[in-house]
Specification:
Belongs to the universal ribosomal protein uL24 family. This is Large ribosomal subunit protein uL24m. It holds the Pfam family KOW. The protein is built from five helices and 13 strands. It has 253 residues and is of the alpha+beta class. The protein has a six-stranded antiparallel sheet with strand order 8-5-4-3-9-10, with no helix packed on it. The protein is extended and about 85 Å long. It starts with a helix and ends in a 14-residue tail after the last helix.
Length: 253
């Protein structure tokens, strides 16, 4: 059953690449190319000089604030992140804050920024900041939520004990991949709000556009059958070609 989970992940990757906010557009919106060879000339290799390191903050890569924070020829101090093998926090999760003034309080995750291992919890870990201040106007003081590290700042809440717990990814008998609490062995389902996109709030309420959208039945349809054969062998079998040549003997010394 794991093959279906693998194929489902591939469908999710294709959705990221070709959705209404595709990954290719996000990359183009913030990339800084200083020089590159012209396209359409086979004698020139596909070489370019571009910026490789960016400073990711609370502003998303396609916004003007992100461009101002990463202006050309300006380099900021590198931020070191602890690598996470498999992401386990999603929008809508109930978590408990483990550090700071709100330690021990529980809240709902409102935003996730995986580039910095950050999550924002509604109404917790807040601070005051002044916006719109200039020479004539004193500005407006607003309450802003600060990010928390998923490695040390928050933990998921066990749905049975309502206490923070470590989790582990496991497979059910049906082959579905789920998060399981190590404290009570209860499944922690992924919230529905994690599926929200610009197009719709939930998958059930989305109305397909027959002229532009690919039908859900076509997306979930499995058209590939795995075989213990190479690509050439698969083509020969489908076209009815039989190999009758005898390979020449070769000797290795």
């Amino acid at each position: 059953m794991r093959i279906f989970s693998f194929l489902g992940k591939k469908v999710g990757d294709l959705t990221i690449k070709y959705s209404n906010l595709p990954e290719s557009y996000i990359k183009r919106s913030y990339e800084q190319v200083y020089w590159k060879n012209p396209t359409g000339y086979p004698q020139y290799p596909a070489a370019q000089i571009a910026r490789k390191k960016y400073r990711f903050t609370t502003h998303r890569p396609w916004t003007g604030q992100f461009r101002r924070q990463n202006e050309p020829n300006t380099h900021r101090k590198k931020v070191f992140l602890e690598p996470i093998g498999e992401w386990s926090f999603f929008k809508g999760d109930r978590v408990e804050v483990m550090v700071g003034k709100d330690k021990g309080k529980q809240g709902i995750v409102s935003q996730v920024i995986q580039e910095r291992n950050w999550v924002f919890v509604e109404g917790l870990n807040t601070h005051y900041r002044v916006v719109g201040k200039d020479k004539k106007f004193p500005g407006v003081t607003i309450l802003s939520e600060a990010p928390l590290l998923v490695t040390t700042g928050v933990k998921l809440v066990d749905p049975e004990t309502l206490k923070p717990t470590e989790i582990e990814w496991r497979y059910t008998e049906e082959g579905d991949k789920v998060r399981v609490s190590l404290a009570s062995s209860r499944i922690i389902p992924i919230p529905k709000s994690a599926e929200e996109t610009i197009d719709y709030k939930s998958k059930e309420l989305y109305v397909e556009n027959k002229e532009k959208d690919t039908a859900a039945s076509d997306v979930t349809k499995i058209t590939f059958q795995p075989k213990l054969a190479t690509f050439e062998m698969d083509i020969m079998e489908s076209m009815g070609i039989k190999e009758d040549r005898v390979p020449v003997k070769s000797y290795w010394y």
